[in-house]
């Protein structure tokens, strides 16, 4: 499973690309629930890139009332040595 991290890890890594997941936020939806769903999509996208983790993960709400969306962004990384390096 790909880890989602707010900060950079202490172990060596290489950046392999930016990842993002976006989705409309409807009036009946919870922002937290939608963000969790999009975090899973972010993990899936990073997994396809053979990433070990996504760092600098942010969750933002964009748009105006009635046309809002949630965007989850981060940078996919691969650990460069030690246990768990390379998938």
What's the gist of this structure?
The chain is an alpha+beta fold and 87 residues long. It is built from 1 helix and 4 strands, in the order ββαββ. The termini are close together.
Descriptive report:
This protein is of the alpha+beta class and 87 residues long. It has a single domain (3-79), classed as 2-Layer Sandwich (Translation Initiation Factor IF3), CATH 3.30.110. Helices cover 21% and strands 40% of the residues. It has one helix at 31-48, and strands at 3-4, 13-24, 53-62, 69-79. The protein has a four-stranded mixed beta sheet with strand order 1-3-4-2. The model has no long low-confidence stretch (mean pLDDT 89).
Task: Present the secondary structure layout.
Layout: E1 3-4, E2 13-24, H1 31-48, E3 53-62, E4 69-79
How many extended strands?
A: 4
Query: Helix/strand-derived class?
Result: alpha+beta
Q: What value does the Rg take, in angstroms?
A: 14 Å
CATH domain fold name? Translation Initiation Factor IF3
Q: Could you give me the name of the CATH homologous superfamily?
A: Hypothetical protein apc22750. Chain B
User: What portion of residues belong to β-strands?
Assistant: 35-45%
Cα(first) to Cα(last) distance is 10 Å
The structural domain count equals 1
Main pleated sheet:
4 strands, mixed
The number of helical elements comes to: 1
Mean pLDDT: 89
**What is the N-to-C succession of helices and strands?**
EEHEE
**Unreliable residue runs:** none
Write the CATH architecture name. 2-Layer Sandwich
């Amino acid at each position: 499973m790909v880890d989602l991290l707010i900060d950079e890890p202490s172990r060596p890594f290489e950046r392999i690309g930016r990842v993002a997941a976006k989705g409309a936020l409807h009036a009946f939806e919870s922002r937290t629930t939608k963000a969790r769903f999009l975090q899973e999509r972010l993990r899936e996208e990073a997994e396809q890139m053979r990433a070990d983790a996504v760092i600098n993960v942010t969750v933002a709400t964009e748009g105006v009332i009635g046309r809002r969306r949630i965007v989850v962004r981060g940078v996919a990384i691969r650990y460069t040595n030690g246990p768990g390096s390379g998938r």
